[in-house]
Amino acid sequence: MSIFASMKTFLLALLALFLTSSAYAGEIGVVFNALMNGRPLVMGTPVRVDNGKYFFSPRFLQYYVSDISFVHDGGKRTKAEEIYLLVNAKDAPRYVVGSYDITNIDSIEFHIGVSYMSNHSDPSLYPPEHPLALKEPSMHWGWAAGYRFIVLEGSAGSTAQTATADVQLHSVGDTLYRRITLPVNSTKTDKGVDVVLNAEYGSLLQNIDASLGIVLHGLGEETIVMTENMATLVFSPANSTSVQDNAISASNISINPNPSSDVVTIAGGISEADVRIVDMAGRLVATTSLRGGLTTFSVASLPVGSYTVLIGADNGRITRAPLSIVR
User: Fold this and answer.
1) What value, to the nearest 5°, has the Cα angle with vertex 79 and ends 175 and 152?
2) pLDDT of the residue at 121
């Protein structure tokens, strides 16, 4: 082997070592898996709440997450300085916190609401894309009160058919700033590390009788209870999954139709492989096998949402491709 070939081999090995050691350092994301009574949240769909006492149909849910910290890699602590998330329950569930030197996250700490100094800042000073900038609908209640920490709106009634009474609960006030600490399983991705949290928004109305409708913007009994529910009942860690790419090129994977509602056909650039479907929380929801480079299987029982198809080759590598379920 020539000296040039040896040098090339050495450099390639060094590059592979670098990529392996740093593959999961970088972008840190938090995924809020929106649920209502254990099923994916669908705006405008009535569900039973408050231990089944009445039905609630959500139409809007938005809240602030701030003062985020991660405990990671054997006890290290990293705080995301001056990072605010404006979480909208109907939007894409993943929010990028920033880029940090983190490989594995053990726990996350965050607050619901906006800290005192920022809560009484001028929203017009922030650029339009900033979570604390002026929004439509407005999340700022005024100079004295500050921001709306949580906005929950919808309609309620004793049955799904009669769930028409207006519900508006807006949590406002510095005393409603709440801390949440959770152990988590982090999901390693090709971009960095994600933390997936189940967000059971049906619990927001626990011990709140809104069956006849209620409108409360500010600090009151119901908004205090709703904020406590957010801090103690809504969030829980989801199961994780770790995948590696580069086995079968994603460009060689064909998933049709996609989006789908009942049957999916997968054709891949490999004759035999195991196929797994996982949801946004990393939970395994379906399995099948690729034989002769083709498989057709039912997705009729899967709830509406976004999924990932994991195709495993004999060498242990896994390739992933997105799959959407619509109805």
Assistant:
1) 40
2) 94
Q: Which two tokens stand for residue 47?
A: 């569900």
Both tokens assigned to 39: 């099923």
Domain of 152?
21-237
- pTM, two decimal places: 0.70
pLDDT of residue 275: 82
Under the phi-then-psi rule, with left for phi > 0, alpha for psi from -120 to 50, and beta for the rest, what region is 14? alpha
What is the predicted pLDDT for the residue at 243? 37
What are the distances in angstroms from CA 276 to CA 284, 285, 323? 7, 8, 12
Instruction: Specify whether the CB–CB gap between 133 and 127 falls below 8 A.
Output: yes
pLDDT for 164 equals 98
- CA distances to 247, 289, 320 from 316, rounded to whole Å, are 8, 15, 13
What Å distances lie between residue 35 and 66, 235, 257, 324, CA to CA?
Answer: 21, 10, 26, 17
| Alpha-carbon separation of residue 257 from 159, 242, 287, 305 (angstroms) | 36, 26, 18, 15
Same domain, 137 and 277: no
**Residue that the structure tokens 């029982």 belong to:** 301
Residues of the chain with pLDDT under 50: 4-5, 8, 10-24, 240-249
Task: Give the tokens for residue 101.
Answer: 């030197």
51 and 120 part of one domain? yes
- On whether both 230 and 277 belong to a single domain, the answer is no
Flag whether 12 is in a domain: no
**Residue 16 lies inside a defined structural domain of this protein:** no
For residue 13, the model assigns a pLDDT of 47
Report the CATH number at residue 279: 2.60.40.1930
Token pair for 316: 């242990």
